[in-house]
Amino acid sequence: MKEITPSINLTVENSIATITLNIPERHNSLSGEDIAIFISHLETVSCSNEIRVLIITGAGQKTFCAGAALDQLSNGQLNGDLFTDLTDKIAAVDIPTVCIFNGSAYGGGTEIGLACDFRVGFAAMKLFVPPARIGLCYPVRGIERFVRVLGINTAKRMLVASEDFSGDELMNIGYLTHLVDKDSVHTRGLVLAQRMSGYAPIAVKAMKSLCNQSVHGIQDFDNACRIAASCNSSADLKEGLAAMKDKRTPDFQGR
């Protein structure tokens, strides 16, 4: 019997989880079933106390993700809201998330990257969002994410004008956070993840949360101060200060 290869893989090594889109034969476009598996993996990551960083990447050399599977969009099996449910859940992960672009990104694949904290790409990659070209309106929550992260002018270039962007242009507009040679993209993303996985997890989660809240304007300042104070009274802070004094690598336990 032929072994069935999972469409979305989850692996964990040394406190770093990696979710890999593993459907290169269809440019890693996601069906409703694939999205359900992806969300299940995100829930596994979110429930773990051992995982400190999440990497999202794709299999193959050409495409990171081509968004939603067009055949299911066409026949009504899949809609944009389901895809946006996925990107909302990526954005809600409380540990750092790193999107490593193994190839180009199109449509919803662009938003998967946008939902991550860090995006590592290369000059020759391409990106465009095609709904305007085919008569679709991009999902409302997705449009909100483009505007919030990239600003209104760049969001309009991507969505309304449906422009094509190269890796260099994506770095210039602030979509990519890191730009490297294609041969180095996985190494650069992994080095970033490894570095963050060695930091104090309470402080990392707190600052990610407060950064995200600040985008909207912190609504509950007292609660934000409590989040910050939880770091300042943690055992991790004591360990960090002791390690600095002893000139050794700290052993953070997330307490």
UniProtKB/TrEMBL annotation:
Q: Name one GO molecular function term.
A: isomerase activity
Q: Which Gene3D superfamilies match?
A: 2-enoyl-CoA Hydratase, Chain A, domain 1
Q: Does the keyword Isomerase apply?
A: yes
Q: Which UniProt keywords apply?
A: Isomerase
Query: Can the keyword Isomerase be found in this entry's annotation?
Result: yes
Family matches, as InterPro entries: ClpP/crotonase-like_dom_sf, Enoyl-CoA_hydra/iso
Q: Which Pfam families match?
A: ECH_1 (PF00378)
Positions in coiled-coil regions: none
Record PANTHER family:
EG:BACN32G11.4 PROTEIN (PTHR43459:SF1), ENOYL-COA HYDRATASE (PTHR43459)
Full protein name:
Enoyl-CoA hydratase/isomerase
